[in-house]
Amino acid sequence: MIPVGVSARTWESLVTAGSERRFRVGDVLLRQGDPPAHVLLLLAGRVKALLTLPDGEVLLLAVRGPGELLGEIAVLGGDGRSATVIALDPCVTRVLPADRFRAVVRETGAETDLLRRAMRRLREGEEWRAETAALPAGPRVVRALLRLAVSGREVGLGQSEIGQAVGLSRGVVAAELARLREAGIVATERGRTVITDLPRLRALAASGRGTV
Q: Max alpha carbon distance in the chain (Å)?
């Protein structure tokens, strides 16, 4: 799988230039505040990106799957890591030192494409934060499920983690999931939610109601 906004030629060049590194569930792939020494290409498994605010609150920013670049924005911008990335599954990656990554980007002429990709990610984050600030609990949970689902169906996160994504307590998330479960829109088990009626969930998200 090739990341959106990255050509097949660039992706193949990056994969070839990198060396394999594997991570176990719970391992930290990148840590917020660390210098941008390398970039990771995620070939297998899922990761979550967490932002720790100055007051200690932790926000879940995204869940990423195979075919993702991790840490490239910090390397291209020369800033410290903006988030902590943790393995949700056993992960297989290719790691490129920052200098090698920048060299491949220059050789393949991918600078503009990666800049557009970075800007798109920033806009996505801003939209999500705006939703979190403006919407009530029901719509927040509904839209979070759609954003966090893998292959459009499964959210392999617990209620506390979903709460981190939308600024809600575990109890509030549990209540909203219970309503969706009773309506036959989702099925839940420990640490996992499956979307069983994707069209209805999307319709709820579009309506802005979030409650059945």
A: 54
Instruction: Count CB atoms within 10 A of the CB of residue 60.
Output: 21
Tokens of 159: 């209620």
The Cα 145–Cα 139 span in angstroms is 10
Give the span between the Cα atoms of 74 and 49, in whole angstroms.
14
Q: Answer yes or no: is 40 within a domain.
A: yes
Predicted confidence (pLDDT) at residue 151 exceeds the cutoff of 70? no
Q: Are residues 202 and 176 in the same domain?
A: yes
Domain-located, residue 212? no
Mean pLDDT, the chain, as a whole number?
87
Q: Do 76 and 141 have their domain in common?
A: no
Whole-model pTM?
0.82
Residue 146 CB burial class (10 angstroms; 0-12, 13-18, ≥19): middle
